[in-house]
Amino acid sequence: MAEQIPQYEETPRVELTPAAADLVRHLRATHGPLMFHQSGGCCDGSAPMCYPEGEFRTGNSDVLLAELQVEGVAEPVTFWMSRSQYEVWSHTRLIVDVMAGRGSGFSLEAPEGVRFLTRSRVVDA
Length: 125
Prior knowledge:
The protein has 125 residues and is α/β, with parallel strands linked by helices. It contains two helices and eight strands.
């Protein structure tokens, strides 16, 4: 079973910019409940991928970083990361943003002409 990172931290592990939250609301209205997966893969695999909830299978090689509460979305949007990537990024806060341009054909926002992008900030020690 996939591991969940404790949610007691003061600084959230993952947050959405207002533009990303707007896109999540749009995608939720079109596709139903959503999830993100951030892998450590090459190319588009290093971008956060948005899927219908449950479409991307998670397992022991993944950790649940956050259950994002997005205003206007009834259920939390889960944010998963590969365990190996988390080991590298465990000291960071991830900020999911949106930019113009086509990302992966597998992520739900691809037909919208935009793509999700992860920015990171080091979390204070």
